[in-house]
Amino acid sequence: MRGRIEKILAAAKARGLRSRESANPAAWRGHLNGLLPKKKTLARGHHAALPLQDAPGFMAALRKHPALAARCLEFTILTAARSGEALGAEWAGDATEFPREIVEQALAHAVAAATERAYRRGAAVGRRRPLMDA
What we know:
By secondary structure, the protein is mainly alpha-helical. Helix 5 (100-106) packs across helix 6 (114-133). It has 6 helices and no strands. It has helices at residues 2-14, 55-63, 68-79, 83-87, 100-106, 114-133.
């Protein structure tokens, strides 16, 4: 809220609605930072690790879910990739002989027009399976 008020008052000064010499009472630097305590940062920490003995059961349960998010999580676990790397994967076009359109669909990238994507969705599952196996 303070930041928004600071911007509003700065805009008013820029438009000549406030005196150019007046200080911005909502400014943090050079004003409120000397008067108010520093903002506390939220510390969430790390998620608890899955016990190793529970991993096979978790992976079996994960494989039962057909969602793309489940495949991404499985990939992340099996490759020790970071989530951002898994979500932003581009990895397959250069390293395999699979057609570009199949790789793009497997990565959930939008290809072609919406109508064409709707017709392709069912047929492409069988074509993507060998890529996923590889």
